[in-house]
Amino acid sequence: MDKKLLLETVQSWHIKLKPEYRGFRCARCQRYMRKAWHVWFDYKGRKCEIHLCRECYKKYGKED
Fold first, then answer.
1. Residue 55: enclosing H or E segment and its boundaries?
2. Mind listing the pLDDT tens digit for each residue in 34-44?
3. C-beta of residue 60 within 8 angstroms of C-beta of residue 2
4. Is residue 51 part of a domain?
5. Which domain holds residue 64?
């Protein structure tokens, strides 16, 4: 996985202070979905999780 691209995706979010309860959406294209790829990565000692649809997952590349 391309960690730089993952981090850019996370940094593009407009995170609200109040928690949201909603269905899964792809982190990249924002499509609602019932099943998602759950991608975890480490950034400066912090674990980050993003959810990707099948199409967007392919665009991020395979893990080495």
1. helix 54-60
2. 889 988 888 88
3. yes
4. yes
5. 1-12+34-64
